[in-house]
Design brief:
Radius of gyration: 19 Å
Number of domains: 2
Protein name: Proline hydroxylase
GO biological process, one term: regulation of translational termination
CATH class of the largest domain: Mainly Beta
InterPro entries: Pro_4_hyd_alph_FE2OG_OXY, uS12_prolyl_hydroxylase
CATH architecture of the largest domain: Sandwich
Helix content: 25-40%
Shape: globular
Distance between the termini: 65 Å
GO molecular function: peptidyl-proline dioxygenase activity
CATH topology of the largest domain: Jelly Rolls
Mean pLDDT: 92
Length: 264
């Protein structure tokens, strides 16, 4: 049975904390080989297929994915790992890494737990819901762990981090096996993967997600009101897709399009 070790986590926090607080477009860190490979492999092998359990189908205008936060549907390896991520040892690590004090875990995994996306799936760029209505707490931190072994660049599924003005994708993170992403959440921490997944049949984008809260938060991180997920407009989504298509076109085609548009 796996348990986090406080000394090992403290070393990680000390190594990454400066990079975390200075990261753009908002505080975050990407940590590869986060767990012992044998632990991550056990999580991957036990991860339910799209047909294995009653997943919540999150298909709507801004999303096409599967999700489950129901403990009864979680394999024992995943259930045990999520409990470890809500432990005192792990919370102390997150506080040291992020500089956010008095973090509170969510035993209900609201919006989190197991996430899975099939080919063609996507999640529009958004800012997360910012308030836990059951506990009356402010959402402050996200943790994602990817379980996708031998994941190739052409499969897509990158986690995209966008600037506050939603004009530029500042960073793309390929969701490879045993890669952990931790980031601060606010009304301006825009992220998602708006380009539909292009993985081959049978390959899905698998991840575990946990969210952490505090009682109150600094001024300026939100508009002062609680809200659900703030998806960006369909127009913004189309612009995101066009930017990605443009990157794939030969330069001469891009130049021709630019000249034609200029004459119109």
């Amino acid at each position: 049975m796996f348990f986090f070790e406080s000394d090992a986590l403290r070393d990680i926090a000390v190594s990454y904390k400066q990079a975390y607080v200075t990261a753009e477009p908002f505080p975050h860190v990407v940590i590869d080989n986060f767990l012992p490979d044998v632990v991550t492999e056990a999580l991957r092998l036990s991860f339910p297929s799209p047909e294995a359990i009653s997943w919540k189908d999150k298909t709507h205008e801004h999303s096409k994915k599967l999700a489950s936060n129901k403990e009864a549907d979680m394999p024992s390896a995943i259930r045990q790992f999520l409990l470890q991520c809500n432990s005192s040892t792990f919370i102390s690590f997150l506080e040291e890494l992020s500089g956010i004090a008095s973090l509170i875990p969510d035993p209900h995994y609201e919006g989190g737990g197991m996430h899975q996306i099939k080919s063609g799936g996507y999640l529009d760029v958004h800012a997360d819901f910012n308030y836990h209505h059951m506990y009356h707490l402010d959402r402050r931190l996200n943790m994602l762990l990817y379980l996708n072994k031998d994941w190739k660049e052409e499969y897509g599924g990158h986690l995209e981090l966008w600037d506050r003005s939603m004009k530029t994708c500042v960073k793309k993170v390929l969701p490879i096996f045993n890669r952990c992403v931790i980031f601060t959440t606010s009304d301006f921490s825009y992220h998602g993967h708006p380009v539909p997944l292009t993985a081959p049949p049978g390959e899905t984008r698998k991840s575990l997600a946990l969210y952490y809260y505090t009682n109150g938060r600094p001024e300026g991180e939100t508009g002062g009101i609680s809200h659900k997920t703030l998806y960006q407009s369909p127009k913004t989504h189309r612009n995101v897709l066009l930017r990605h298509v443009k990157q794939l076109l030969p330069p001469i085609i891009t130049e021709i399009i630019r000249r034609v548009r200029k004459k119109l």
